[in-house]
Amino acid sequence: MISTHTARRTFATNAHKAGVPTLVIAKITGHRTEKTLLNYIRVTAEENAMMASKNVFFGGQEPEEKR
């Protein structure tokens, strides 16, 4: 069994990695501020760099449906 805290942290991290905006995740998880939510999200420096490289702002490609 896992605790609700672990499940909440896992959801927040996975949603963040999937590109869900942090303010949306905060509303779902019940965090009042983005700052408190960011304490829950666990992303390594390498994972962060990969997510940034896929973002159109940093030279990544736009999703197919937006082209």
Order of helices and strands: HHHH
Largest sheet: none
Q: What is the number of E strands?
A: 0
Uncertain runs are none
Radius of gyration over alpha carbons? 14 Å
Question: What helical percentage do the residues reach?
Answer: 55-70%
Question: What best-fitting shape do the alpha-carbon axes yield?
Answer: elongated
Number of H- or I-type helical stretches: 4
Distance between the termini: 44 Å
- Decide which structural class fits the backbone: mainly alpha
Q: Please, how many domains? A: 1
Proportion of beta-strand residues? under 5%
Report the mean per-residue pLDDT as an integer.
Answer: 87
For this structure, the quaternary state is: single chain
Question: Which secondary structure elements does this structure contain, and how are they paired or packed?
Answer:
Layout: H1 4-17, H2 22-29, H3 34-38, H4 45-54
Helix pairs in contact: 1-2
